[in-house]
Amino acid sequence: MARWEGDTRARLERAALELFTEQGYDRTSVAQIARRANLTERSFYRWFTDKREVLFAGDELEERFLTAIEAVPAGTAALPTLLAAFATAPEVLRPREFLLARAAVIAANPPLQERELIKMVALSAAVAAALERRGVDRRTALLATDVGAAVLRSASRQWVLDERADFAELLAASAAELLAVVAEGAPD
Fold first, then answer.
1. CB 149 within 8 A of CB 124
2. Nearest-angstrom CA–CA distance, 109 and 47
3. Domain interval for residue 77
């Protein structure tokens, strides 16, 4: 096995995603992933607890958002704070091709969809807590986080499909679209 090759985690992620795409998540084993990456199973388990975690491991996005939230000037309202933090997402996101293939694998497997939702709930809780540490009341922090998450999902979907798109611009446009939808449905 070629253990001296660099970027072990990325090699395992690529190998797993290729196999999940070719033969399905359920029919792919850890041994196959390790073999495709030219590594041992032991190497696989140094990076991931199981094959599912190849798609979900890492807290880079959460760490990036929390750091960015702390860097926003004091006194900035909750939603603009989140949008500023979310604009930093491309700094840690995987390549678009990986994200598209990952989304397809998750969409085809209900237990993976459940894991994705759990990961998103944990991310939302961390973001809301960061807003609270900035002095935002809990109710506003939770509402801003839910609204921000909707904006982030919309912008992310568009960004993955358009390699020329600017992520910050997509966030701003998605926020404006959401506000327009809310304004249409607001009671008089």
1. yes
2. 22
3. 58-185
